[in-house]
Design a protein that fits this description.
The structure is a homodimer. With about 120 residues, chain A is α+β, with helices and mostly antiparallel strands. A three-stranded antiparallel beta sheet of chain A has the order 1-3-2. Chains A and B meet through helix 1, helix 2, strand 1, helix 3 and helix 5 of A and helix 1, helix 2, strand 1, helix 3 and helix 5 of B. Chain A binds a DNA duplex (30 and 30 nucleotides) through helix 3 and helix 4.
Chain lengths: ~120, ~120
DNA sequence: CTCTTGTATCGACGGGTGTCGATCTAATCT
DNA sequence: AGATTAGATCGACACCCGTCGATACAAGAG
C-alpha cells in the first residue's frame, strides 16, 4: 500500500523509541489569544443571532428591538451587547433615550472573516 | 425634523412612541446553536494552537507531540483534544500505545470555514 | 421639578470550564 | 507473569458565564 520510493519518510512507527516528530511553529501567543477571544465572543447562540440581525440590518438597531426579538430579560440583552462591544464586533451610540448598535465598521479583518460564517 | 416625503421612511425617531422597527428573521435555532458550539470549541488559545498544528501537519499528530508542545499537564491536553473531537473538528485513532489526531476530513463546510481563519 | 421610561450596572445563583493530581486501562517490553 | 508506559478518565478546585431581579442613571414628558 504505502510507499513507492523514499518519499513518505515516516509511517506510523512500530514502538521504536518515541513517536514524537516535529510539529508546526505555534502561532504567536497574542494571535492565538486574539482568535480565541473572538471565537469566545461568538460562542453563544444569542450573540450569534444578534450578529445575524445586525448583519442583515441596513441601519443601526435599537436595543429595544433586541429585547423584543429575544425571550430574555433586558439586563441579559444588555450584557450580550456589551460582550460584543468589548470584542470589537459592534459599536453603539445613544440618541435620546435609546441606544443603537451596529456592526463595527472598523473591525479587524479577522473579525470580518469570523462573521462571514453567520449568513 | 423628521419627514419630508415618505422616502427614508424612518430616521432615528424623535421619541415618538416606540423606536422599534422590524428586525431580520432569526436564524434557525439549530443553526445558531451549531455555530455557537463550533465557536465555543475554538474559544480557547490552546485549542486554537492545536488546530493550527494539525492544519500544518501532513500526517496525523501523536498526542505525545502535543504534550511536548504545550506547557500543560497530559490530562489537560487530553481534555482539549476530546473537546475538539466532540465538536467534530478532529478524529483520532490508536496505533499501538499511541493516539494520533488529525483534522476531521469529513467536517462540515461550516467548520471548514471557521478553521480557515487559523492560518 | 417630578414622573416615567430606556439602558446600564450590580449582586447573586447555578452551571460550565480549564487545570491539576491521582487513578485506570491497555499495549508493550523484559 | 510483572514492570513500564501512553493515554483516558475521575474528582476536586478556582474561576468564568448566562441569567435574573433590583437598582442606578439619564433623558424626556408633563
Amino acid at each position: 500500500m504505502t510507499t513507492a520510493i523514499p518519499l513518505v519518510q515516516l509511517e506510523v512507527p512500530e514502538r521504536t523509541k518515541g513517536c514524537c516528530q516535529a510539529v508546526a511553529e505555534p502561532l504567536a501567543e497574542e494571535r492565538a489569544a486574539e482568535l480565541a477571544s473572538l471565537y469566545k465572543a461568538l460562542g453563544d447562540p444569542t450573540r450569534v443571532q444578534m450578529i445575524h440581525i445586525l448583519a442583515a440590518a441596513s441601519e443601526p438597531v435599537c436595543v429595544c428591538d433586541f429585547t423584543a426579538a429575544f425571550d430574555l430579560g433586558q439586563p441579559t440583552i444588555s450584557h450580550h451587547l456589551a460582550r460584543l462591544r468589548e470584542a470589537g464586533l459592534v459599536t453603539s451610540f445613544k440618541r435620546g433615550v435609546w441606544a443603537f448598535y451596529q456592526l463595527n465598521p472598523g473591525m479587524s479583518e479577522t473579525s470580518r472573516g469570523a462573521l462571514q460564517l453567520i449568513a
